[in-house]
Write a structure and sequence with these properties.
Blueprint lengths: L5 H5 L38 H10 L2 H5 L12 E2 L1 H5 L8 E4 L2 E4 L11 H4 L8 H8 L4 H4 L4 E5 L3
Parallel strand pairs: 1-4
Antiparallel strand pairs: 2-3, 3-4
The chain binds protoporphyrin IX containing FE (HEM).
Length: 154
């Protein structure tokens, strides 16, 4: 008689074992319950989510939006896909999430998923990728002061 199965042996270093119901959540599941793996990266010093909150609280919106001070509020500004596509570098980076266009130039170094990942939505509609990785993230709140305008129905 065999004393243990292969599955038991592979889990001997883990308690509770990886598939156990005692685990609050599997590390392969995101809070949204999707199967995208978690892959947060180490952020540079001074680039935590709290640092981002402090920066947005102390920086005027026109600076974060990257527009002249007298620019009308974002809901008055329509941005075409062509205009959006012109802002795709790290220093001049816009994306559209759920119909709103954000200037994320100042945010990219604060992104918990890393610069490389967030740059995949540079100059484009990033809604699909955004929802794929973290539909639960409150982008409206986090990037409120970075909103440049609304995406025009082309
Ligand atoms: C404006 C756009 C985006 C914002 C505001 C944003 C914000 C965030 C935030 C707040 C987190 C931490 C989530 C948490 O701790 O639960 C995060 C993690 C992450 N983001 Fe983004 N993100 C954006 C775009 C993207 C894009 C376009 C990608 C992929 C192409 C991406 C990939 C990831 C990944 C892989 C993580 C780590 C996920 C995890 O821990 O499970 N993000 N992002």
């Amino acid at each position: 008689m065999r004393s243990s199965s292969n599955r038991d042996q592979s889990n001997t270093h883990l308690f509770p074992s990886s598939g156990s119901i005692q685990r609050a959540a599997s590390n392969t599941l995101t809070p949204g319950g999707t199967s995208a793996p978690r892959k947060k990266v180490a952020l540079k010093p001074g680039h935590s989510p709290l640092d981002w909150a402090n920066l947005t609280n102390t920086t005027p919106s026109y600076v974060l939006r990257g527009v002249p001070p007298q620019t009308p509020p974002p809901f008055y500004i329509k941005i075409t896909k062509e205009e959006l596509s012109l802002h795709k570098t790290k220093e001049d980076c816009w994306t559209s999430i759920k119909g709103k266009v954000f200037n994320i130039s100042k945010y990219v170094d604060f992104h918990p998923g890393g610069v490389e990942e967030i740059m995949k939505c540079a100059g484009k509609d990033g809604t699909f990728l955004f929802n794929k990785y973290h539909s639960w993230v409150n982008v409206d709140r986090m990037l409120e002061k970075c909103m440049v305008g609304v995406l025009a129905n082309s």
